[in-house]
Amino acid sequence: SKPPTEIRSDSPSRDFLWGAATSAYQIEGSPLADGAGPSIWHRFANTPGRVLNGDTGDIACDHYRRWHEDVALMAALGVNAYRFSVAWARILPEGTGRVNQAGLDFYRCLVDALLEQGIEPMLTLYHWDLPEALDTRGGWASDASPGWFADYAQVLYRALGDRVRLWITLNEPWVITAGGYLYGDLAPGHRSLHETPIVAHNLLRAHAAALASGRAEGIERIGLAVNLEPQYPASPSAEDIGATAHRDAFINRWFLDPVFLGRYPAEMETIFGSAWPRHSPSELDALRAPPDFIGVNYYSRSVVRADPTEQPVGARRVRQDARPHTAMDWEVYPQGLTDILLWIQGRYGNPPVYITENGAAFDDPPPVAGRLHDRQRVAYLRTHLRAASRALRRGVDLRGYFAWSLLDNFEWSYGYAKRFGLVHVDPVDRQRLIKDSGRFYRDAIRRYGRGPRHGDLSARD
Ligand code: GBH
């Protein structure tokens, strides 16, 4: 195992990154402003019945107009990094072809303001908001989609490659695929067993193509962000252990095995049966596109029981009733973060890792006299930072931690009902207020300064 990370003040790029994360559709609002085209999320959210309470991202956190204030908030929190995503349809309103300069200007101003505050930008190219015009042309199910994505990526590499050093191709290809094309609870809302593996394959091709186009533009650090959820069997029975392996393949290995190992998990064929396409050796080889780092989005774990009625995986989650849960009904399980980081280290050869999302929704108490006491979120953050610290001490090449999220925002099909922010956003006037969790995070960052000393991230109580 490697020695613990040391503080190297001579080189800011070696600092441990302490950040907060957001995504475009969830915070920006003004989705059609300044020449932007509509996205699949704009259409989906504006279709009655798709999002709780009929909420949409039409205003969201109004970040598109208040971004300057939000950069000041980040400076007040003391973060040295910020992960955000670019809305593809602001850059290319039709998805391909004509570039909308006003869209590029928005993100260039944001990035410059961040750099001015000493905040390192981490730019995600795709966080679920495909241009509607491309959905009309088949979306991610189209064989042409990897090319569209690589062309879009190239526009951004050329426009911002001189000031953004950390890039992410896709956020959570599993969620894009399963939510958008299998379960249908996310845009574009399809439910098709046959389409699903085709979409996954195209996303993997898109990642590889954007990585290649980045290399051609001299971009050095390009990652892939995946949602990972360690799976533990509910019992030692052969059925439950088998079901756990299936869910592990489905959620954790479906995308990482191809990019690092050039193959799909063997379980995928069992899961999809006749819907699983055949891939030639050269097709699989083309998927091998190891990113420069893995972005880990960690929220919870699963305890798994075999259940043949639960298709296509034949497994279901067993709720751990005795354990604490968040407002999403996800179990609070910090050790799962340590476990999944150690799993990456062992399976994929200790690649550089950023925790690109970690956080929780809770039913916060209302703000009183300029304070919001979200003690459950403070506890969640504290215990998960400790869990990250345990992995660091065991040699995981962990380079940074990004809390999800900077702001209470548009939580996809839950609309504004679920709040993940370190900063409260008033639902009526969008006024911001730093929660106790934001104060806790600021103090934790201050305490550990520019790097985790002796491999220990955990804040003293
Ligand atoms: C992230 O995805 C998103 O990147 C972010 O935009 C979002 O706001 C944030 O999380 C909070 O939701 O119950 O067995 O079906 C979340 C990834 C994947 C985590 C599915 C929960 C539940 C698995 N999610 N997982 S299951």
From TrEMBL:
<keyword id="KW-0326">Glycosidase</keyword>
<dbReference type="GO" id="GO:0005829">
    <property type="term" value="C:cytosol"/>
</dbReference>
<keyword id="KW-0119">Carbohydrate metabolism</keyword>
<feature type="binding site">
    <location>
        <position position="171"/>
    </location>
    <ligand>
        <name>substrate</name>
    </ligand>
</feature>
<dbReference type="InterPro" id="IPR017736">
    <property type="entry name" value="Glyco_hydro_1_beta-glucosidase"/>
</dbReference>
<comment type="similarity">
    <text>Belongs to the glycosyl hydrolase 1 family.</text>
</comment>
<feature type="active site" description="Nucleophile">
    <location>
        <position position="357"/>
    </location>
</feature>
<keyword id="KW-0136">Cellulose degradation</keyword>
<keyword id="KW-0624">Polysaccharide degradation</keyword>
<feature type="binding site">
    <location>
        <position position="26"/>
    </location>
    <ligand>
        <name>substrate</name>
    </ligand>
</feature>
<feature type="binding site">
    <location>
        <position position="127"/>
    </location>
    <ligand>
        <name>substrate</name>
    </ligand>
</feature>
<dbReference type="GO" id="GO:0030245">
    <property type="term" value="P:cellulose catabolic process"/>
</dbReference>
<dbReference type="InterPro" id="IPR033132">
    <property type="entry name" value="GH_1_N_CS"/>
</dbReference>
<protein>
    <recommendedName>
        <fullName>Beta-glucosidase</fullName>
        <ecNumber>3.2.1.21</ecNumber>
    </recommendedName>
</protein>
<dbReference type="InterPro" id="IPR017853">
    <property type="entry name" value="GH"/>
</dbReference>
<feature type="binding site">
    <location>
        <begin position="411"/>
        <end position="412"/>
    </location>
    <ligand>
        <name>substrate</name>
    </ligand>
</feature>
<feature type="binding site">
    <location>
        <position position="404"/>
    </location>
    <ligand>
        <name>substrate</name>
    </ligand>
</feature>
<dbReference type="InterPro" id="IPR001360">
    <property type="entry name" value="Glyco_hydro_1"/>
</dbReference>
<dbReference type="Pfam" id="PF00232">
    <property type="entry name" value="Glyco_hydro_1"/>
</dbReference>
<feature type="binding site">
    <location>
        <position position="299"/>
    </location>
    <ligand>
        <name>substrate</name>
    </ligand>
</feature>
<keyword id="KW-0378">Hydrolase</keyword>
<dbReference type="GO" id="GO:0008422">
    <property type="term" value="F:beta-glucosidase activity"/>
</dbReference>
<dbReference type="InterPro" id="IPR018120">
    <property type="entry name" value="Glyco_hydro_1_AS"/>
</dbReference>
<feature type="active site" description="Proton donor">
    <location>
        <position position="172"/>
    </location>
</feature>
